[in-house]
Amino acid sequence: MLVSFSLVMFILSKYAWGPIMKGIHQREETIEKALEAANEAKKEMLQLKAGNEQLLRDAKDERDAMMRDARKVRESILDEARAKAAEESARILENARENIQFEKMAAINELKNQIASISIEIAEKLIGKELENKQQQQQLTEKLLKEVKIN
């Protein structure tokens, strides 16, 4: 039995042991390469994840910058519109003041013309009538003034 065991061992070691060991080594190398590939893939995934996170942060920063710029543009447009509105309001107010002043001067001139006309009328009537004394002159003046106020 020992001889048969030795013979089987010799044959196995001579012909089978080499290919079996070679297969085991190949299998170990394949497993080791697969583990290395898995580790490399894991590293690449982590790098991609970090890259994606950086891209997301960059996109968010860019969006925030665009929003700030848009707010600034909006504020400048609003400020410009407010300034134009204030300027237009001041211009309209100044025109209204000028018109009021013009109308006031026209009314004063018209009033002066009417007063002058009335004064001339009174003077004509006073001169046209001969007055004997101061009392008659005073009464006539008051009467004429009442008539003029009525008209």
Can you describe this structure?
The chain is mainly alpha-helical and 151 residues long. It has a domain at 19-116. It contains two helices and no strands. α1 runs antiparallel to α2 (134-150). The longest helix is centred in the middle third of the chain and has 127 residues, at 2-128. It is rod-shaped and about 185 Å long. The relative contact order is 0.03. The mean pLDDT is 86.
Helix content: over 70%
Kindly provide the radius of gyration, computed on alpha-carbon positions and rounded to a whole number of angstroms: 59 Å
Main sheet summary: none
Secondary structure category? mainly alpha
Q: β content, as a range?
A: under 5%
**Contiguous helical run count:** 2
Order of helices and strands: HH
- Low-pLDDT stretches: none
Instruction: Give the number of DSSP strands.
Output: 0
Name the shape in a single word.
rod-shaped
Integer average pLDDT? 86
Summarize the entry for a quick read.
The protein is mainly alpha-helical and 151 residues long.
List the main descriptive attributes of the protein structure presented here.
2 helices, rod-shaped, single chain, mainly alpha, 151 residues, 95% helix
Describe the SSE topology:
Blueprint: H1 2-128, H2 134-150
Helix pairs in contact: 1-2
